Amino acid sequence: MHMALPTALLGAALVTLGGCASPLPKADPNQAWVTMHSPASSLLMADLLDGKRWPDGRYFQMPSGAHELRGRFMFEVRGGGGGHDGFAEPRQITCLLLLRYADFASGQRYRWEARAWLMGAKSRLLNSAGEVLAQGETLRCGPY
Questions:
Q1: Which candidate, 62, 41, 48, 60, places its Cα nearest to that of 112?
Q2: CB under 8 Å to 59, separation ≥6 — which residues?
Q3: Which of 24, 53, 67, 78 is the most buried (most CB within 10 A)?
Q4: Exposed/middle/buried for 70, CB within 10 Å: 0-12, 13-18, 19+?
């Protein structure tokens, strides 16, 4: 099984992150911090915070209270039925995800996790103790 990031995912990650090697900014203790996590063969990136474009795909940082986060989750699916060996080429799928949470707290760290689920995605928000606080919503998925 191929475990490295697919070329399309790698390219998207490099363009969007523009230097993943750069360190994350220092967390503001007066803000809530959300990091993005997905399996190694996929990529979850921060996109919009309360409807406004977020500049760094690796995290969100925001004041206490209710917020709406949007992310892009990219992964490959393999399917049967084509090609000379009976298997179709892998397809790149991107899912637009939505996460709403009313109680983000300043100084707290959160983790937004996503994983592929059939031809879509599942996501959830966890606190620093690993407790699930909210389930994400998949807005749509396709070969974007």
A1: 60
A2: 24, 33, 34, 35, 36, 46
A3: 67
A4: buried
